[in-house]
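User:
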Amino acid sequence: MSSTAFNRLRGLFSKSPSPIITTIKANRAAEIRAPISSKDKKTLSLVKKFKETTDNPRFRRYHHYYEATVLRLAREQHFSAIRDILEHQKKYPDIMDQKFAVRLICLYGKAKMADDAQKLFDELPSLNCERTVVSFNALLGACVNSKNFNKVTELFKELPEKLSIEPDIVSYNTVVKALCDVGSVDSASVVMNEMESSNIQPDVVTFNTLLDAFYKNNRIEEAEKLWCLMEKKNVLANVRTYNSRLRGLVADNRVSDAAELIEEMGKKGVKPDNYSFNALMKGFVDVGNLEEAKVWYKKMMRNGCGPDRATFGMLIPFACDKDDFDYAFELCNDAVKAKQSVYNSVVQRVADGLVERSKNNEAQKLMKMAKLK
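Assistant: Predicted structure:
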């Protein structure tokens, strides 16, 4: 090449950049120089440290560390950071183990990142991990956790035939839950019928999901028919099944039937929990029967079920409404002993009621307890 031609080419690459290019470079330089907030620094540090720690095979077996980190980042909406640490896991041989891959899919679900969960599921064959009904169920569950309910039904219709996967009871139950969560209870019932045509019998999880949906939608008659079907199929009800029915009976103003149902639970070896008693006591609160609410509060205590914040949040204002400030004071005492918080406004209402009735000592004790909480 002649020296003249060489100089001409060199000139092309040594010319001053155009204003547009200069502007772009300046903007990029400004981005690089832009200060990183202390919050972002902490996130970057967390991600870096987590990725370094996962180099240890033993650490990769600690599920709770993964979950705690992902949930923390999700709360702070650092979704790119979650993607960064979970994508990083693909470099390890563990990814060929279905259990490890399923954990990652589930973590995406807990972070409400359904698209990333599906992306990982689609990539499993290229990562030498077989896709089975287990990973398929994990994907469906991730979509439910992400509130992407339409995606659940879409995947359920499309993937089993495409991937030669036979849906199991978990698959069907996940679809039933997704449909109930969007209010399509009738469609969920159809899915339960389809289960039986596929020689899969509905279990207590299936019935719990449907019963809860029917009762919540005030479709009491249909829920009762479903309860009878469950008994006919010899599916044993658990405490969650009973709690759904209790809430339904209370909503239907059948409080006495709800009380009988709790007695039935004991006879059938199903121990009522605090949700059971709270549901029944709410029924008595709704009908204005403080004396019965007191009776069942005592039974709750004898049953070994510790009253919770919902219990006190319901009964203390009700006792005040009924002008029974002695009982309200007693409940406040129980709340302090149980280390359950009560709204300051409620405590103040009880104290004011005691003072109005010349029970200043009790009011002072109450305010002292409130300060010591």
